[in-house]
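User: What would this chain look like folded?
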Amino acid sequence: MQEQDTKLIAHLLRRAGFGATQDELAAYAAQGYDATVEELLEPTDPRWMGDFLARRFHHEQSGMMGPWGSGDNWLYRMITTSAPLHEKITLLWHGIFATGYPKVIHGKMLSNQIRMFRRYGLGNFKTLLSELAKDPAMIVWLDNYDNHKDAINENFGRELLELFSMGVGNYSEDHIKDASRAFTGWTIGNTEYMVLRSERDSDWPYGRISWHFDYRADDHDDGEKEFLGKKGRFDGEDIVDIIAEQESTARFIARHLYHFFVADEPPVPAWPYTPPRDQDAIDTLAKAYFDGDYNIKYMLRVLFNSDFFKAENVRYEKVKSPAEFMVGVLHLTGEFDRPRREIMDRGRQMLYMGQHLNNPPSVEGWRQGTDWLDTGSLVERINFASEQIGDLSRPGVKTMVDNIAPGNGDHLSSSKLVELCLEQMGDISVSDASREILVSYADQTDRSPQGVAGVLRLLAATEEFQRA
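Assistant: Here's the prediction, encoded as structure tokens.
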């Protein structure tokens, strides 16, 4: 396979996953780009460390009574999965349908929501929206337990239209009211609002009571509603059906997929006033939305095989989120070949970089792109990556060093050493300026394992390593 084909597959694996080791990249390259896309979309043998093992070592990942257990469990899965796109799409929906612990106060429900995103995230968008409306964590997060036929609460109805499906400018205040009326009676069972934050909702010390979706017909507004040009005695499912049919929904989801997988767009509140970076790409993805009957996997197949995704000018354009960055590093180092208490430390370090899984800053989720980088968070990222990648006690680091300089590497020129390090880190391309610094450093170090690890450590601090 030509070098450019390998570079393209490396680009795909950074965007549709969290990067890859050189051995993984070689295996994907052997089967070719098209086959790699299909393997990512429909993995033949999806597996990961497993709940049975992780929870055996971490009781909080079973009880999930605090704010950390659900995120740490998910971190294990992202690091060790053989189906990275399933986790990547789950991360996308978590950022769009942002739901957080401070209000829900129920880690297991947040973990169940993540499982729901994983299960439905590559399927029909209409089904995903319906499952979201029935999700207990979302019902609490956006107050739909307090949405009654005689006293509607518009919180969920508003965000469903504004942030989850269509975007500002494509509906009216009356549409919000009638959508909210349609979701009256959609609540949770196993508790009531007045005990949500009471000790009575918990089976201490074994965990919190599990909530479930509960439809209460006697609290549902069954009257006629008018929504986006249609009239009827709509319920929530009807509202979702109508939303899914809209051209604005197709374009809203298309822009999210482009933003997450291709190149950074401005924050969502600016979308009504700022045209897309690549209007033709949005048109292509919006068409795929309808051609595939609202299927996200169909849209991604079109996206990954498109010229706008493969173009060299979008590579290394996206700043990795803290979750993407950390998972990519830990996947390379192989630190978590089994459950370790250090997973808790990694979750805290991700917070210092600016992201706490299952705890977004608002209903809008996290701002992305260069907003991930400020003086403090960038120092945290560089220090973390350099420490991890330069640690020869990590099995993945030792493997990379052995592959670069088996035995004695004194014969390697500085330029060749840098080239081999770039390959081992996932076939990364760097600018001439970055390469010059790396080669200059290699000129000053020996070819011992510690010396080679030093070059890898410096590479982890480059601008290109912060990006995908």
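Strands lie at 186-189, 202-203, 207-208, 212-215, 225-227, 230-232. If you want, I can go into more detail on any region.
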